[in-house]
Amino acid sequence: MRAVSLLPGATEMVFFAGAGEALVGVTHECDHPPEVRSLPRLTSSGIDHRSMTSAEVDAAVRSVTDGASLYSLDASLLRRLEPDLVITQGLCEVCAVSPGVVEAAISALPRRPAVLSLNPSSLEEVLSDAVRVGEALGRGREARERVAGLRERLRRVARATAGLPRPRVACLEWLDPPFSAGHWVPEMVELAGGEPLLAAPGEPSRRLGWEEVVGGAPEAVVLMPCGFGVGRTLREAGLLARVPGWEGTPAVREGRVWAVDANAYFSRPGPRLVRGVELLAALLHPEAPVSPPGPEEARPLPRELLVAR
C-alpha cells in the first residue's frame, strides 16, 4: 500500500493507526509527527502567512476567485509516487487543496488510485474518520483500539468537570477580522465543561463583528487562530485592547483569556483534538483533576494585551 495524504489531520491519523510506513507523500503543512517532515511535499501555497498579518492573510484569501484553489498540487510528483490511496477532503478550501484540483490530477494518472475523502464537522466524525483511515490502510483493529483510548480520555474529562459551573466561552478562529470557531470546537467546549458562545456544535465557522463577541459577555475567551501556535497568536493579540467594550467583558476583568496552539489541538481534525478538550477543561476548571497545559500548548494573555494603555 502506497498512500499520499493531502490533509495534515489525515497524515496524523495514518501515523495514529500505526501505518506511517505506507505514506509516500504529504502536504507542505504536514509537521506531525516529526518523521513526516522528510517525506515528499505534494502541495504549496501562494500565500506566505508567516510574513503577513492576519488582516493581510484574510484579504489574500478573499481575493482568490471562485473555483480557484489557494494551493497548488504537484501533479508530476503525484504521478511518480504511484499511490494506491489518496486521502483528501472537501470540508474547507482554505485548509487544503480543493477537490477539483485533486480530481483533475488523479484523472490524469495512468492508474487511478482509491480516494478517501474526509469531511468531518464533529468530534465524533473525526474519531470515526480515524478508524476509516486505519481500515483503508489495513490497520483497522489498531485504529479502533486507539480510538477507544481517546474516548476513554474524553470520559475522564467529563467525569472531572461534572457538576462544576459552566462558563460562557468564546472561541475565536481568527482575530482580524474575528471569526467564530465552529465545527467540532463548540462540542469540545461542552465536553470540557463550558457553554459555547458564537457557534453551536457542527456549525461552520463564520465572520463576526466585535460587537457580537463583546455583547455575548463571555466569561472565558480562547484565541485559536487557524494554523497558529501560541507565540504567533500572542503577537496578533495586541489588537484586542482596542476593541470597544473589550475591557468590560467578564473574561477580561477576570483575566480568563488564553492563547492556545490551534495548529496542534483545535484547527486540524485529527486525534490531537482530544488533547484540545483536556486543555480546555484545564483552563476553564483549574480545580479539576485534568492534566495542565504546557507553555507551548496554552498561555494566558498578559495584562498589557488585554487593556489599552
Automatic annotation (TrEMBL):
PROSITE patterns with a match to the protein in the record: FE_B12_PBP (PS50983)
InterPro entries: ABC_transptr_periplasmic_BD, Vitamin_B12-ABC_binding
Domain Fe/B12 periplasmic-binding: 2-288
Domain of life where this protein originates: Bacteria
A Pfam family matched in the record: Peripla_BP_2
PANTHER family assigned to the protein according to its UniProt record, in alphabetical order: VITAMIN B12-BINDING PROTEIN
Name this protein carries in UniProt: Periplasmic binding protein
Protein source organism: Rubrobacter xylanophilus (strain DSM 9941 / JCM 11954 / NBRC 16129 / PRD-1)
